[in-house]
Structures are given as C-alpha cells and as structure tokens.
Design a protein that fits this description.
Number of strands: 0
Helix content: over 70%
Strand content: under 5%
Distance between the termini: 34 Å
Structural class: mainly alpha
C-alpha cells in the first residue's frame, strides 16, 4: 500500500517536472518571435531572411525527433531529458551573443537540435507513469505549458526587452535552464515495471521505427500534425510582425494582444485532454477534423477583420480548435501502441510538426515579400493547411487488428 501511494505521488511529481521543463523550452522558442523585431533591425534583415532565422530552429528540432524518441526508448526518458535541457540552455545563452545573420541561424539550428529530444522523451515518461485512461489529461497538462508561455513570453519578454535589450533575456533564460536540468536529476524518476523492462529488451533487438512506419494511421497522424502545426507556427512566428507592421501596434500592444489567444488555449488544452479521455476512439478523429475546418473558416475571418477585437476573437477560436487537434494527435499513439515504441512513434509524428516549423515561417516571409507586404497569400496558405489536416483525420481508420499485429510482432 505504501509503495503504491509513493508510485501514485511520483507520477504527479514527474508530470509537474515535465510541465516545468516544457515551459522553459516554450519560453525559449517563443521569445525569439518578439526579439526578432529588434534583431531584424540590428542585423538589417529582410522579411525573407527573418523567415529563415525563425525557421532555422525547427530544422534542427525536426532532425532530432526520431533519434530523440529512439534514445528514450533505448536508454530511458530521464537521461534524455536531462541532457536535452542542458544542451538547449547552452545555445539559449549563445543566442544572446549572435553577431550576424549566419551566426544566428547556426546557433538557432543547434538550439533546435538540443531541444528536439524533449517531446518524444516526455511522451515516453507519460506512458511510463500514467494508465491509458489518464494519458490525454497528462499530455494536455504538459502541453498547456505552451499556452502558459504564450501568455508569459509576450508580456514579460517585451517588458524585459525594453528594460535590458534582447540579448540579456537569452542569458537569463539559459542560466535558469541549467538549474532546471539539475532539478530533473534529483526529482524525476524512471519507473521500472515488468512490462516496461520487457519492452526495453525488445527495443534492443527490433527496429522500432520500422514497426511504426508499417501502420497507415501513423502516416495520417504525421500529415495531420504537419498541417495543424503549419498553422500554429505560422501564426506564432509571424503574428508579432503582422501586428506591428499591418495593424500598427507598438511593442507593448503587440505583447498584450499576442497573449490573449494563448490564455484561452490554456483552458482549451485542459478541456481537450479531459474530453478525449472520455470520448470513444473513432469519433474523436471526426470531431477533430471538423474542428480543423472551423479553424480554417476563422482564419479567413482573421484575414478580413476590420478591427482588433474581431481579429483577436477569431484568433481565440482558431486556438481552441488547434488545441483539440494537438492533444488528439499526440495521444493516439500513447493509447494504441506498445510502450516500447511510443517514444519513437511520437518522435516521428512530431517530426511532421517541426518540418512545418521549418517551412511555414520561411514561406510566409517569401510570400509577404513577393506580394509587397500583403499577408493575404499567407493566410490563404494557412487555410489550405487546415483542409489538409481535416482530410487526413477523416481518412484514419483505426484498425485494432493492426495494433494487435504490431504488439505481437514486438513480443514474438
């Protein structure tokens, strides 16, 4: 009984630490979207070059998704998390010393490599500690860190930039990251169950990625996640610039308006996790596809909004729709695949999201420059991505026999 209670308490410690670590990671990646306003002026960057800077992080981040998941499956999620936080914190500090366009994109690329293992390793941690009927809620709790930092980064970040300049922020956040890594060493534990030990032994003799890629559902989730994050990263990376240049807002106003949709996203993420743990599999994907189409409709309304009130309300609706899709896509593997390949599976799916992070900011930059500063083509592109996401989700036919075959292949 005492041992069970300790195990129950430890899972809450683990999810709290995962939330803390991912909050730091999200702040690191979000703050550049506001710092880039001053960086682009200091380094004389055009819109297309600014897009390349914003995308460089995701190039490195995407490359580490599958290796990060494999490392977590092979060596345990705890070791991977500690190392990845330390590495990305070092490159957070180095971002503050960037002196040119080339140095900045190299540092941001390596920053992405450092941070890339966190999500697949954290997914492995959730499976390690939480039963299937709690994994959507656990995932939603970890992922709301993105929404929380989406509120904190615009307000705190813009304030600090005014007080200290953009370089000092990266020095401070990098130092905090080192402290957080040491906290993971002391507070995060890896639960060793007979089932997880068996899966670890299996993962050493099989090729997890090969098993993952045999499942059509994984590819459909990959496409869905790519599409939904093309919208997410497109809005997140370029919205500060859009509000500044098109809507004519000053830095403080940009920070305030940018914080409102993520604040709504906090509640949307939590509610989505709760609802998805109650919703039957199959129906959840249909609802998510419909939500993706609704997001596309409200993106159109954003592009044509006559004032900031309507614009912000529409962006809030888009955020709610995206939140449901994000939680659904990231928890399907946690509920349907064996524990021994969960890290690799979510690493592969998340690679789609990060490729979207590589492409979308660059594409928006080129489109804005090509159309003389107009963002209409960029909004049209994002709307098309919501349609692709919906179609991919509608095509998912969850075949329980396929999942069972995978399980049997791993055990045989």
């Amino acid at each position: 009984m005492v041992k069970a209670t300790r195990s129950q308490n430890m899972k809450y410690v683990v999810i709290a630490m995962l939330f803390l670590g991912w909050s730091l990671g999200n702040f690191d990646r979000f703050i550049i979207n506001f710092a880039i306003l001053d960086i682009s002026k200091e380094l004389s960057l055009t819109d297309s070059l600014t897009g390349i800077v914003l995308s460089s992080f995701f190039a490195g981040y995407a490359l580490m998704q599958i290796p990060g998941g494999w490392l977590a499956d092979r060596f345990g999620y705890r070791k991977v998390l500690v190392i990845t936080i330390l590495v990305w914190s070092i490159f957070t500090v180095l971002t503050g010393v960037a002196w040119s366009f080339i140095s900045l994109i190299i540092i941001r690329f390596l920053f992405g490599v450092g941070e890339g293992s966190y999500f697949p390793a954290a997914s492995k941690g959730i499976v390690n500690w939480f039963p299937k009927n709690e994994r959507s809620k656990a995932m939603s709790f970890m992922l709301i860190s993105g929404s929380v930092m989406g509120v904190v980064a615009p307000i705190v970040g813009t304030f600090l930039m005014k007080q200290m300049g953009w370089r000092a922020i990266f020095y401070i956040v990098g130092a905090i990251g080192v402290l957080v890594a040491f906290c993971f060493v002391f507070f995060v534990k890896e639960r060793k169950t007979s089932n997880s030990v068996q899966n670890e032994q299996i993962s050493q003799t099989k090729t997890p990625l090969k098993d993952v890629l045999r499942t059509p559902m994984i590819w459909q989730l990959f496409i869905s996640y790519f599409s939904i994050y093309a919208v997410n990263w497109g809005l997140m990376s370029w919205m500060p610039m859009y509000l500044s240049k098109v809507k004519g807002l000053d830095l403080t106003a940009v920070g305030i308006y940018s914080a409102i949709p993520p604040f709504v996203g906090i509640f949307a993420m939590l509610c989505s996790g709760y609802i998805l743990d109650k919703m039957s599999q199959g129906k959840d994907k249909i609802v998510a596809g419909i939500f993706a189409l609704v997001a596309g409709a409200f993106l159109l309304l954003m592009a044509t909004a006559s004032n900031m009130l309507i614009f912000t309300l529409c962006q809030c609706v888009v955020t709610v729709m995206l939140s449901f899709n994000i939680i659904l896509i990231t928890t399907v593997p946690l509920k349907t695949l064996p524990e021994g390949i969960v890290g690799t599976a979510n690493g592969f799916i998340n690679t789609g999201a990060q490729f979207a992070g590589v492409l979308t900011p660059m594409l928006i930059g080129f489109l804005v420059e090509a159309f003389g500063g107009s963002y209409n083509a960029a909004f049209t592109m994002l709307i098309c991505f919501t349609i692709v996401c919906a179609m991919s989700l509608f095509m998912i036919k969850q075949n329980k026999q396929t999942v069972a075959i995978h399980t049997n292949e791993l055990i045989d």
